[in-house]
Amino acid sequence: MFGRKLLTLACAVGILAFGACFGTLDRPSPPPPLAPRLDLHGIKSIEVVVKNVSESHHLDPSDLAQTVAKRINWRTEQTGVTADVPQEGRAGDGVLEIKVLSESATPIPPPSASRVQWWSIMVNTSATLTKADGHVIWRETNFSNQLSSGFTAKDVEQLWKKPALRDWLPIELSNRLVYRMFYAK
Questions:
Q1: Any idea what the CATH number is for the domain that residue 89 is in?
Q2: Residue 32 lies in a domain
Q3: Does pLDDT of 20 surpass 60?
Q4: Can you list the positions of beta strands (E) in 10-160?
Q5: In what order do the strands lie in the sheet with 94-107?
Q6: For 141-184, what is the HEC assignment?
Q7: Does 101 map to a domain?
Q8: Count of domains for the chain
C-alpha cells in the first residue's frame, strides 16, 4: 500500500517536472511585433498638436495630445520614434497635427433597464504628420472614428460631462490613430 502511494507520488512529480522543464519546447514563440509600414524619413521625435475645431468642443485638445504622445512613446521600441507635446525651446523632427472636426453621441437602442446606457460616439478627425522641412509624411482627412460604450448617463449633455468618458475617449482615439499612422496601408 505504501509502495503504491510512493509510486503514484513519484509519477506525479515526474509528470510535473517534465511539464515544467521540458513542456515549453513544443510551444511556438510569439509572433514578432508588427513592423511599421510608415517610412518616417528620418523623423526621430514628433511634436503632437491637437486643435478642436468642432462646434461642441467637448474633447479637451491637451488631453488628446498627451495621450497620443504616450501611445507613440509606447511603440518607440518598434518605431524608433518618440513624441511629446510642444515645449518652449524644444522642437521635434516632425509635427503631428490633429484636428477634431466634429463630436456627437447618440444612445444605442433599446434603452437600458439598468443605470448603464450604451452610446454610439462619433468623432471625426483629420491628422497630418509633417517633417520639419514641411514635407508631409502621412495624412488622413475627415476620418470617422465610430466608438461605442456604456455609461451611466441618460442624456447627451450628461454623457459629455462624465469623467469616465473624458478618460476613455482620448485613449480609444489615440490607440486607433497611432495604429493607422504607423501600421495601416
A1: 3.30.160.150
A2: no
A3: no
A4: 45-52, 82-84, 94-107, 117-131, 136-151
A5: 82-84, 45-52, 94-107, 117-131, 136-151
A6: EEEEEEEEEEECCCCHHHHHCCHHHHHHHHHHHHHHHHHHHHHC
A7: yes
A8: 1
18, part of any domain: no
Mean pLDDT of 148-152: 91
Could you identify the residue written with the cell 513542456?
Answer: 23
Q: How far is CA 168 from the centre of its chain?
A: 10
Q: Alpha-carbon torsion 51, 53, 59, 60, what sign?
A: positive
The model's pLDDT over 25-71, given as tens digits with 9 standing for 90+, comes to 555 666 556 667 778 888 999 999 999 999 999 999 999 999 999 99
Asked whether residue 33 is domain-assigned, the answer is no
If we measure between CA atoms, which residue out of 118, 123, 121 comes closest to residue 151? Answer: 118
Q: How many CB atoms lie within 10 A of CB 4?
A: 8
Range of the domain at 62: 38-183
Asked if 149 and 168 touch (Cβ cutoff 8 Å), the reply is yes
